[in-house]
Amino acid sequence: SVKKGFDFTLMVAGESGLGKSTLVNSLFLTDLYKDRRLLNAEERIIQTVEITKHTVDIEEKGVKLKLTIVDTPGFGDAVNNTECWKPVADYIDQQFEQYFRDESGLNRKNIQDNRVHCCLYFISPFGHGLRPLDVEFMKALHEKVNIVPVLAKADTLTPSEIKKKKLKIREEIELCAIKIYQFPDCDSDEDDDFKQQDYELKESIPFAVIGSNIVVEAKGKRVRGRLYPWGIVEVENSAHCDFVKLRNMLVRTHMQDLKDVTRETHYENYRAHCIQSMTRMVVKERNRNKLTRESGTDFPIPAVGDMTDSQTEKLIREKDEEVRPGDPQAESAHLLGQPPADHEQRSQQKFETECGSHAGARSHLEDEAL
């Protein structure tokens, strides 16, 4: 596994201008968006949400990582953002579906895992807490993917403002019953340093981040940061932002746990739903075939997928009435295409004729006896 390397898919979502591209480039020391064209205001009015993928190979200490970045340009930028998260949810489901098909196939050794393991959702630093769009997006996806909220452009806020905003966002996430990624609890035998690191990581949610691809000189050292009239903000300085914590969490400490939660929780929920749906379809198909055989009719029956439960129950009742035991003569009359009343009249005439013939034969035998 180490020789083969690891696959990890990271999705970034949030409205334009929050520094998503800059943060991704800063996290993985690459330039994934050098050929991107920025749209003007008029083009963004009618823009729809698109899904774009970028793949980069990273190697650290002999360990290879195939990183796939899934971007969502156009999210939250239009005038009408109704269900703008649906293409994102559909994309995640499509990856689950593809993996389910590959897993159910014959060649299972070389399955390509394109499932989304983590979604960084960028929250605007402006305003008070979460916006309705933020709540709706996270509630629509929290059962499908590990959501890690990120407070974008943290250099626009003071330390006290960051602290208050983080607390406000955490309260609203809990109030709205949004299930973000939960860091695993430490074991009791873990050392104090690790427990402190885990506590700080949990308290950092949402991660207040700053991104920069520019190298500046600060205190005689060249660092990545942003130069302002009042000083320099260092991207990799933990006193300035949570960039280092986020990078370590994604790449070093919690990458495997993110993949495990994706496999054991989100994908298993999707897989169970698929199997349940397939089972219901098979049961309905069997019932439909059974009714067709028992009724002996050749008229077309609606497809299972096109029938509602009420239509299915109605069809079953009709078939029960057709196959229920009744008057054999009435049934044979029905099969001969004769009306029931006409058939009864003919049966009565036949009975009277037979009775008359029996009476005549009896009188003839009595006369011979005398």
From TrEMBL:
What keywords sit in the KW lines?
Cell cycle, Cell division, Cytoplasm, GTP-binding, Nucleotide-binding
SUPFAM superfamilies with a match to the protein in the record = P-loop containing nucleoside triphosphate hydrolases
- The principal location of this protein is cytoplasm
Is Cell division found in the keyword set? Answer: yes
InterPro entries according to UniProt: G_SEPTIN_dom, P-loop_NTPase, Septin
Pfam families attached here?
Answer: Septin
Q: Where in the cell is it found?
A: Cytoplasm
Region spans: Disordered = 287-370
The superkingdom of the source organism is Eukaryota
Q: Name one GO biological process term.
A: cell division
**Cellular component annotations (GO), alphabetically ordered:** cytoplasm
Where is the site labelled Important for dimerization? F126
Q: Which GO terms describe its molecular function?
A: GTP binding
Bias kind Basic and acidic residues: ranges = 287-296, 311-325, 341-355
Q: Which family does it belong to?
A: Belongs to the TRAFAC class TrmE-Era-EngA-EngB-Septin-like GTPase superfamily. Septin GTPase family.
Supply the name of the protein. Answer: Septin
UniProt organism field:
Hippocampus comes (Tiger tail seahorse)
Q: What is the lineage of its organism?
A: Eukaryota, Metazoa, Chordata, Craniata, Vertebrata
